[in-house]
Every structure is written in C-alpha cells, then in structure tokens.
C-alpha cells in the first residue's frame, strides 16, 4: 500500500519582515524515501504598523514584557488570517490541511553563547503564537523550531539545510543552495553527500543593507531597490567596497549565523558614514551595498567552501534572486572563478587580480548560477516549503536539524506542537 500523504502548509516570515510566505505541499513517506511536492504558494503583506513594530523590536529597541506578549499573540492572529487567506487562494478547505509548520518572526537570535549573568548563554526568540494559529485555523501547528537545536549546543540556525539536502542532493554534482533573504545563507551539498557532509552558514547580508539604504534615502517611500533600478544608476566606488570587504564577520569561521542585531541600524549608520567619507551619492551607496553583498558571498565560497569540496552549481532562492545586479555580479564572479584570488572592486564586475596564494587551492572551477525555480522550487517559496517539510518530520518524531550545519551535538526533533481543537 502506498504511504498515506498529507497536506502541509509552511509559513515563513524572514528577517526582512516584508511579507508572510506560505507554501502548500503534499508530503508522504519517510527519508530516504520522503516525497514532497509543492502544490501552491503565495505571499501576504504584513500590516504596515505591525511590520514597523517588528523591525523596531528586532533592532533591540526597548519593549516591555507586556508589549512583547501582546505582539506575540497579535502576530499569531495575523499568521492565522494569512493561513485562511492562502487556503482560499489555493481553493483548499482548511480541514483538508493536516499540519502547519510556522517558523515565526525572529526578533532575537544569539546562536553563539555569550556571557549573561556570569554564565554563557545562547538563545533565540521567534514569535507568532502557534496556539492562536491552531485555534483559529483548526489545524495542528508546529512552531518554534530553533530552540531544540540550541538546547543541543547548536546555533539554532540554519535549519533550511535539511530541506536543501532532501531537495538538491545530486549523485554527481556538488551544489550550494543560496537563499537571499534579509541575510544570505548557503547550504553546501557535496556530490553524493551523506547528511554529515552537509554544512551551512550565513555568509552575511543579502537584502538587508540594500533595503535599509533605500528606505533611508526615500524616507520610507520605497522599501527595496526594485530590479536594482537605483543601484544601476549609481557609480562604482572601488575604495568603498574594499573597505566594506574588511567586515570582520566575513573572516569568522563557520558555523556562524547573523541577523539584524549585526547588519541592522548600527551597520546602516556605519554605511552612511563611509558613504560620506567617500563622497558617495545615495545611488552610489546602494550600488556599493549590492556589490558588497555579492562579493561577500563569493568571498565565503572562496574561504570556506571551495578549498574543501568541488561545487558545480549555485542554486539561488529568496527575494534577492529578483535583483538583477546582485545576480549578475554573482554569475560574473563565479563563471570565471579562479580559487584563491582576492576580488578587487577596483576591477570591472567579474574580473579579478591574483593575490599571493596563501592556502592550498584546488584547480580553477566554473560554477553555474541557477535560480531554484529552474529546479522546480519557485524562489519565493523555498523557505516556506522547507518549514512544511520540517513540520512533517517533527510530527513523525524525526529529527530535522543537520548537526554539521548548526554545530549541535546530535540530531534533535525540532519544534513545539499546538494541537488542533478536538473535532
Ligand atoms: N524585484 C525585486 N528586485 C530587487 N529586490 C527584490 C525584488 N523582489 C524582492 N526583492 C528583495 O527581496 C527581499 C525579500 O526577500 P525574502 O526572501 O522575502 O526575505 P526574508 O526571508 O528576509 O523575508 C525584499 O526586501 C527585497 O529586498
Ligand atoms: Mg520575506
């Protein structure tokens, strides 16, 4: 008898807090014979006032315990409404959906333990109360996936690598899955990899700096640089990009994760100061942030990935996959990839000058840059699809962290379950 399949809805809102992304999948079986088919996906905008409050709180601006509690429950209501709207758009009755996997809205993430009341502590907080989602939708909801990994000594992030592994593992091709949300993260899946060979980390910013600059210069009239229109009008300022490339986060060895705590307001202020020093016009600075973003990803591949394993393809997802300048920079740098070079922004896009090689480097490689859509997962559905998969695994009592990606001591069953009301 074929395994029974379930409809699972993944719900994701990333660090950009631009929209709630929902993906409906039909899932059956168990790894290594898990079958997951993405049926539909949609995005629903955040109510603007809530978005403002989320961004404020995620910047670590003061909030009282009472307000935080209110925000958690209110977001639960917003997520529940998004689920019901999505179900209508998909023409699926909510009672046909077996399970929701809700990532929640990250408002704090400290994956690496830091001193706190004389003891090192790591923690993470994703909000959007799942009991509310389950009650309003009548669908069992799994949420709060990250803490179980932190409890095992991991960084609680990234968690999408489990889905990347299931979706993209290839017998002959080494692949890197790159998601360009607010932050850029990669999952490295060597050819024919075992789960223990998969590793992943945040390379640095993706859209976060670009969005912050655009919002700043347009006084919030625009939220992002649609199709890189502004950046394309800017001039390159190589010395500025060279300075950005000295960002100490880029040199930190993985596993590592980052967020608004680092690439948020303080970083924006640093960028604006740098811009002034280099006499950059607004569009020059947006261009610099876009190029820096692309080069920081290439730098991460050069430093931490290519010396270890051969990569044939880079599979790009997330909102940043719609940014043509970001993608062009990536493709240019990687199609002409010579490992061990330092990328100098003083060269035209894609060209490099060779610096003394300090590490032993493998032979030069060319890496093909693909959109996840070309492999059947629309760029804006990848992460929500991943949380549908994670919820399905948790519901079946199976672990879905990848310890080599998060640094956890062992596999963990992720998330907490809010059951649907009795029928
Ligand atoms: N057409 C586009 N041109 C340029 N950037 C885009 C475009 N569409 C989306 N983006 C970028 O993608 C971001 C949202 O990406 P997303 O994957 O939803 O991030 P997150 O997971 O952090 O919410 C937007 O804030 C914007 O910067
Ligand atoms: Mg988003």
Would you write up a description of this structure?
With 423 residues, this protein is of the alpha/beta class. The protein has helices at residues 48-58, 65-90, 130-137, 147-151, 161-168, 208-217, 229-233, 238-244, 248-251, 260-263, 265-277, 282-305, 324-335, 382-395, 403-406, and strands spanning 5-13, 19-28, 35-45, 99-116, 119-127, 141-143, 175-180, 183-189, 199-205, 313-317, 368-371, 416-418. 37% of the residues lie in helices and 22% in strands. Helix 12 (282-305) packs parallel to helix 13 (324-335). The two termini are 27 Å apart. Bound molecules: adenosine-5'-diphosphate and magnesium ion. Residues 14-16, 18, 181-182, 207, 210-211, 224-228, 318-320, 322-323, 383 line the site of adenosine-5'-diphosphate.
Round the Cα radius of gyration to an integer and report it. Answer: 21 Å
How would you sum up the global shape? globular
Number of helices: 15
Stretches where pLDDT is under 50 for at least 5 consecutive residues are: 338-363
Order of helices and strands: EEEHHEEHEHHEEEHHHHHHHEHEHHE
Mean pLDDT score, rounded?
92
Bound compounds: adenosine-5'-diphosphate, magnesium ion
**How many strand segments?**
12
- Binned, the helix content reads 25-40%
Q: Strand share of the residues?
A: 15-25%
Tell me the major beta sheet: 7 strands, mixed
Structural class: alpha/beta
- Spatial gap, N to C terminus: 27 Å
């Amino acid at each position: 008898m074929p395994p029974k399949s379930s409809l699972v809805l993944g719900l994701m809102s990333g660090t950009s807090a631009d929209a709630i992304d929902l993906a409906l999948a039909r899932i059956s079986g168990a790894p290594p014979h898990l079958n997951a088919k993405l049926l539909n996906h949609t995005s629903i905008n955040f109510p603007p006032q809530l978005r403002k409050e989320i961004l404020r709180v995620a910047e670590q601006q003061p909030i009282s315990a009472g307000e935080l509690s209110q925000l958690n429950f209110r977001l639960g209501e917003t997520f529940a409404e998004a689920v019901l709207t999505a179900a209508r758009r998909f023409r699926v009755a909510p009672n046909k959906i077996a399970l929701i996997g809700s990532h929640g809205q990250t408002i704090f993430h400290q994956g690496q333990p830091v001193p706190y009341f004389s003891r090192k502590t790591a923690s993470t907080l994703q909000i959007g109360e799942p009991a509310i989602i389950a009650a309003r939708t009548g669908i069992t909801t799994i949420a709060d996936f990250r803490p179980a990994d932190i409890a095992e000594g991991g960084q609680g992030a990234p968690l999408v690598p489990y889905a990347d592994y299931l979706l993209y593992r290839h017998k002959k091709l080494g692949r890197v899955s790159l998601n360009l949300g607010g932050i850029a993260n990669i999952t490295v899946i060597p050819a024919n990899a075992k789960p223990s060979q998969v590793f992943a980390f945040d390379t640095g910013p993706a859209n976060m700096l670009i969005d912050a600059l655009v919002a700043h210069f347009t006084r919030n009239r625009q939220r992002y640089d649609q199709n890189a229109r502004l950046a394309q009008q800017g001039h390159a300022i190589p010395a500025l990009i060279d300075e950005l490339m000295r960002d100490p986060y880029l040199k930190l060895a993985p596993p590592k994760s980052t967020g608004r705590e680092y690439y948020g307001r303080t970083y924006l202020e640093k960028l604006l100061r740098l811009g002034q020093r280099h006499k950059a016009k607004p569009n020059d600075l947006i261009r610099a942030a876009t190029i820096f973003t692309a080069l920081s990803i290439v730098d991460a591949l050069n430093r931490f990935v290519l010396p270890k394993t051969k990569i044939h393809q880079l599979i790009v997802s997330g909102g940043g996959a719609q940014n043509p300048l970001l993608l062009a920079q990536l493709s240019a740098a990687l199609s002409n990839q010579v490992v061990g070079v330092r990328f100098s922004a003083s060269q035209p896009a894609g060209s490099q000058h060779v610096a003394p090689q300090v590490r032993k480097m493998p032979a030069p490689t060319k890496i093909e840059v693909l959109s996840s859509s070309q492999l059947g997962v629309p760029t804006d559905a990848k992460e929500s699809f991943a949380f549908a998969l994670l919820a399905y695994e948790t519901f079946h009592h199976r672990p879905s962290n990848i310890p080599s990606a998060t640094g956890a001591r062992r596999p963990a069953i992720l998330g907490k379950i809010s059951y649907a009301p009795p029928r």
